[in-house]
Design a protein that fits this description.
The complex is a heterodimer. In chain A, 37% of the residues lie in helices and 16% in strands. Chain A is of the alpha/beta class. Among the domains of chain A are: 25-35 and 136-335, NADH-ubiquinone oxidoreductase 51kDa subunit (Rossmann fold, 3-Layer(aba) Sandwich); 369-489, Fumarate Reductase Iron-sulfur Protein, Chain B, domain 2, CATH 1.10.1060. By secondary structure, chain B is mainly alpha-helical. In chain B, 32% of the residues lie in helices and 8% in strands. Chain B has helices spanning 2-25, 32-40, 54-62, 75-86, 117-121, and strands at 103-107, 127-128, 136-137, 157-161. Chain B has a two-stranded antiparallel ribbon. A two-stranded antiparallel ribbon of chain B has the order 2-3. Chain B is elongated. The chains are: A alpha/beta, B mainly alpha. The interface between A and B is medium-sized, with 33 and 30 residues. Chain B: [4Fe-4S] cluster 3 binds at residues 122, 142, 145, 148. Chain B: It holds the Pfam family Fer4_21. Chain B: [4Fe-4S] cluster 2 binds at residues 112, 115, 118, 152. Chain B: GO terms for molecular function: 4 iron, 4 sulfur cluster binding; electron transfer activity; metal ion binding. Chain B: Residues 1-23 are annotated as: Hydrophobic.
Chain lengths: 529, 182
């Protein structure tokens, strides 16, 4: 039920957008429940954008709840923790939730059921410097919970731009997903306090919390929390329900009117954006000293009891599916929403920080797509593209592998929201083409970098060999020159006595040579015999 | 008549001076085409093209002495880029030059005797070690050229194919059946 625009603020529009059936009410009837402790946790060491965390726990070691098991490795990386107390039984390659269906490094943890915590240290963020808080977030494994799982500490670096506006993203525009909605309804005060911490770290002036107007309960709850906490210059704003209104650039456009152009970041314009669940996690990290060990996940779709659960990271998805009670005609499971999610390679893969929703899929809910027909260049995709691109052109370039031209048409501004595929009358899987083109371009750029590096190393080697040759030649020349000089110098003033000595030396040298020669011949004879 | 002659020779002198100045001022070192071709080549320095490295091969192509389909590590993509750059037809690989899966050299460290022959063979200094010390390949620098394999007297270097991992996984080209409207 949309609420009227009771905001005090003028809102803006972004280009395009669609209105798919929201299917959110099924999973918002019951409150968030805590999922029971599973018999086994598989905790991937790569749950965030960037480098895989380095395992720091040993196999067989007993770990406590919240203990660091993966150390951030590299600048873009984040920590990984034991979600409960128990024993690490393996650190090996296991199947994870990834569209490739390939395995990655995971730690297997058998819980002991005691939930014994490591010592937790709550801090008052006002006593710390933003840089110190940033480090704490990195070590608490806090990453963006909206879906991209980008390490949050990196988004809080202040060295480049003055941030004036902090946007908190509670839009949750994708159908079926309700984890942020329920979190805002039930834990608004903590989200708002987390927002205050983020504002402190960014030194931002105002906080704008954008929530789509199909979540009136969440809006009311968040407004009450802001009022009760006495937060100044913090505003909860109902935004129109349009998919993909929860895209960071789209929400920033709607709330502030700022259009973040191609190749520009919102921080260049003084705006930084965080998901509401990330703000909640930041609050848990500072005010309770708890690293990111669990998150809210929606289990919905073809299940008996669609609901939101607070689930430990590393819980097999199968456990969550069992809680939902998947119906017998379920044929696959989607992680994420129906627009941007991907089918899981197996229901045994573990839940990760980026898992916001699991949809049990059946032919009834998601009928197989109708046959694909040729593109007729109707440009309906261009009408709905929220990034203001020309999807029909991008499709054409990707299809014919003209990656340079695809890039020239700003392929990398595509947020892969799927609005184009949704409206395509020919049912062309457009986003698949864009993903294909993007990963090909990334691979090529990577190869090019490697080639450039190899060229530099090869050139250095050539130079070094040349230099060594030159040095050797110079040394030889110098020695020869010295010898010649000595000969010239010694030629004239030889006295009779010296000449006699020289002759004696020469004869003894000849004698030695003769001896040596005969010894060699002797040895040769010896060997032939 | 005389004034016309003077004017013309004055113009010629000025233009000549300008051209002479430009020739010195905007002088390009080496052949720019060679650099452009070299830029396309994969820099494995493997010599599979029968030239002793990528730059010599680029020089030969620029001089019209070598075909553009002699570089297996560059793949068909590389031939296509060269064809585009040089304005010639695409030419498939011959039977003697077939691209292989990208691989890395791996030294069996228990067998290595520390002879340094592979270090001398490596065109990109990707092998670390010293005489009578165990050697090892710096994986991030190895181009997979295989030049270190032959010199090893104890055959302890093998080429291992880099398989598909999450880190290098790519979205595939969409494949589906199409129907024509009737």
């Amino acid at each position: 039920m949309p609420v009227g625009n009771d905001n005090m603020r003028k809102l803006y529009h972004f280009h395009g957008g669609i209105h798919p059936p929201s299917n959110k009410t099924q999973s918002t009837r019951a409150t968030i429940a805590r999922a029971p402790l599973p018999a086994k946790l598989v905790i991937p060491l790569h749950q965030h954008a960037g480098e895989t965390a380095k395992p720091v726990a040993r196999v067989g070691e007993r770990v406590l709840k919240g203990q660091l098991i993966g150390m951030p490795d590299g600048i873009v990386s984040s920590a990984v923790h034991a979600s409960t107390s128990g024993t690490i039984t393996a650190i090996d390659m296991q199947l994870i939730a990834h569209p490739s269906g390939l395995p990655n490094l995971c730690a297997t943890l058998i819980p002991d059921g005691e939930e014994e915590w490591v010592p937790r240290k709550a801090i008052d963020y006002r006593d710390h410097s933003p840089a110190g808080l940033q480090h704490l977030l990195r070590m608490a494994g806090v990453v963006g919970l909206g879906g991209a799982a980008f390490p949050s500490d990196l988004k809080l670096s202040l060295d480049r731009h003055k941030i004036t506006t902090l946007v908190l993203n509670g839009a949750e525009c994708e159908p079926y997903i309700t984890c942020d909605d329920m979190l805002m309804r039930e834990r608004a005060a903590e989200i708002v306090q987390g927002a205050e911490m983020l504002r402190f770290m960014l030194d931002a002036e105002e906080v704008l919390i954008g929530i789509e107007d199909n979540k009136p309960e969440a809006i009311a709850s968040m407004r009450a929390a802001v009022a009760a906490g006495g937060h100044r210059r913090m505003e909860v704003i109902a935004v129109p329900t349009v998919y993909p209104g929860g895209g960071a650039k789209q929400l920033i456009r709607v709330l502030t009117g700022i259009e973040v152009a191609a190749g520009v970041r919102s921080t260049d314009k003084g705006v930084q954006c965080f998901n509401v669940a990330t703000a909640y996690t930041v609050h848990r990290a500072f005010a309770h000293g708890e690293p990111l060990l669990s998150r809210i996940v929606t289990i919905t779709g073809n299940v008996l009891h669609p609901r939101n659960y607070e689930v430990l990271i590393g819980t097999p998805i199968a456990e969550l599916v069992a809680l939902g009670g998947a119906l017998p005609d379920t044929d696959s499971y989607i992680m994420g929403g129906p627009m941007m999610g991907f089918p899981l390679p197996s229901v045994q893969v573990p839940l990760v920080k980026a898992t916001n929703c699991i949809i049990a899929s059946s032919k009834k809910i998601f009928p197989p797509p109708p046959p694909v027909m040729p593109c007729i260049r109707c440009t309906r995709c261009a009408d709905v593209c929220p990034a203001d691109l020309q999807p029909q052109d991008l499709f054409w370039f990707a299809q014919s592998r003209e990656f340079g031209r695809a890039q020239a048409f700003n392929l990398f501004d595509c947020i892969e929201c799927g609005a184009c595929s949704y409206v395509c009358p020919s049912h062309i899987p457009l986003v698949q083409y864009y993903r294909f083109a993007k990963s090909e371009i990334h691979a090529r750029e990577h190869d090019k970098q490697l080639a450039d590096k190899a060229r530099v190393r090869h050139d250095y080697r050539e130079q070094r060999i040349e230099r060594e040759k030159q040095e050797k030649a110079d040394k030889l020349a110098a020695r020869e020159k010295a010898a010649q000089a000595a000969r010239l110098a010694g030629a004239q003033p030889l006295t009779a006595q010296q000449q006699a000595e020289q002759a004696e030396l020469e004869t003894s040298r000849a004698h030695i040579r003769e001896l040596a020669q005969s010894a060699v011949e002797h040895a040769d004879e010896g060997t032939t015999k | 008549m005389l004034s016309a002659l003077l004017v013309m020779s004055a113009i010629a002198a000025v233009l000549g001076a300008v051209l002479g100045f430009a020739a010195i001022k905007f002088h390009t070192e080496g052949n720019p085409l060679v650099d452009k071709i070299d830029d396309v080549l994969p820099q494995t320095q493997c010599g599979q093209c029968s030239y002793p490295g990528c730059k010599p091969y680029a020089t030969a192509i620029a001089a019209g002495e070598a075909d553009i389909n002699r570089c297996p590590p560059g793949g068909e993509e590389g031939i296509r880029k060269l064809a585009e750059l040089l304005g010639v037809e695409f030419k498939p690989f011959g039977e003697d030059a077939v691209p292989k899966a990208k691989s890395l050299a791996v030294i069996d460290e228990s067998t290595c005797i520390g002879c340094t022959l592979c270090i001398q063979a490596c065109p990109v200094d990707a092998i670390a070690g010293a005489a009578k010390q165990m050697h090892t390949v710096i994986a991030s620098e190895c181009t997979g050229c295989e030049l270190c394999v032959a010199p090893c007297p104890v055959d302890c270097i093998s080429m291992q194919v880099i398989g598909e991992k999450i880190a290098n996984w790519k979205w595939k080209y969409p494949v589906y059946a199409m129907t024509a409207t009737t």
